[in-house]
Amino acid sequence: MTETVNFDSLGLAPELLKALSESGYTSPTPIQAQAIPVALAGGDIMAGAQTGTGKTAAFALPLLQKLLPLASSSTSPAKHPVRALILTPTRELAIQVEESVKTYAKHTQLRSLVVYGGVDIKTQTPHLKTGIEVLVATPGRLLDHIEQKTLQLNQVQMLVLDEADRMLDMGFMPDLKRILALLPKQRQNMMFSATFSNEIKKLADDFLTKPQLIEVARSNATNDNVTQKVYQVAQSDKESLLVQLLKDADAKQVIVFTKTKLTASRLSRSLVKVGIAADAIHGDKTQQERIKALDAFKAGTVTALIATDVAARGLDINELPMVINYEIPSAPEDYVHRIGRTGRAGASGEAISFVSADEEKYLLEIEKLIKHQITKEVIVLAKPSRTPRGKASYQDSPQEESVTKRITPKKKNIDPWFEQPYVAAAQKNHASASARPASTRKAPVAALLGGLANKA
Ligand code: AMP
Questions:
Q1: Per residue in 68-98, pLDDT tens?
Q2: Domain for residue 345, yes or no?
Q3: Per the structure, how many domains does the chain have?
Q4: Chosen domain end from 379, 394, 409
Q5: Which of 316, 319, 339, 454 to mutate for ligand 1's pocket (most ligand atoms within 8 Å of CB)?
Q6: Is-above-0.85 flag for pTM?
Q7: Above 70 in pLDDT, residue 263?
Q8: Full domain range(s) for residue 324
Q9: Measured from the CA of 55, which atom of ligand 1 is nearest?
């Protein structure tokens, strides 16, 4: 038997251990095992960890433990100053991180709150005024509160930058600098990032003090639990292919990524027309619409959530069996983030990318970043595609290195190809799953943990 680390041996307080066991966590994930002792000792951390590795608990648990001696049962707001600040790039991630903090803190007197943009700032102010120790915020809304003097940060002793790479991608650097200038100099800092670009290293140099570097998987690497596949397909055939996949894989919950909000909306409408429960989540949707779509996805009434990169960022989805890249991203780091939606916390998953000839250049960049080649299959739909003349199409491509699959739309399970995919990786046990016939397969149903539906 190999020696396993458990939460007790990490020196966590009984209140936190109780919450962990109630959450069903039996042992720490690698990032937790490495980060928690360093953070408890007060050191700065620069962690390379993708979503799905358990990184939220890796910073939230030590943060709560360090604040425990300062917890107070007093109702006076003065006894509950903001002592820990967690910054996230998106509201969805902010909401989910705060849900986790609340879960882990439920047997303590520590209070937490989340503030994010897109909702009336006045609804957040009364909550801030009651006093809270742990504040989770998106940078813009935090600055709004500071300007309105509804918030003071002069007692912050711990700072977490979550998904720092995405914060930079989204142009939050000036906001971050303004916020950091308002914090006490003496504080502990933890930075988490899925990818390590030069900009991230510069951010770490600027804001962290002698950080301990913790990496649980190679930076820019993709999760080993995720089976990745590329379907080379003409752009005009993508929609039919998606419909086939969603219908034939008996998919229960799939996130489909598009590059633009427009494609997300259009695709969601088209899927609904052919009887697939779909909804879109993107930046043009109101916060209420996004929460509604997430709740429906969580409840299983929406099968396909069509998302843009920004909107999907940070969604905490457990055991999501499949992610489909309807269009592959032009920024290779986004690929790593997207497929991090599946195969979380040790579960297996499948990531399928539809790649048209025009997108081949982006695929090469992705393969360079993740340092391996993704298995490719050429998909030729029986119905002739309407590829514009003179444009590259996979029907015309040389196919020496690829397997060609022919798909007949609308007739279910006629092609033997339909007997193979999707469930093997969605099953926890890789070995046995592919042997089962398609008709008996059931894809696991994902759950949004700490989910929005439970909110009052
Ligand atoms: P995160 O990377 O923080 O987004 O976490 C990914 C998922 O793993 C979340 O659903 C967590 O609730 C779950 N998780 C975190 N830590 C553990 C653990 N030690 N054991 C089991 N599940 C965990």
A1: 999 999 999 999 999 999 999 988 889 999 9
A2: yes
A3: 2
A4: 394
A5: 316
A6: no
A7: yes
A8: 226-394
A9: 3
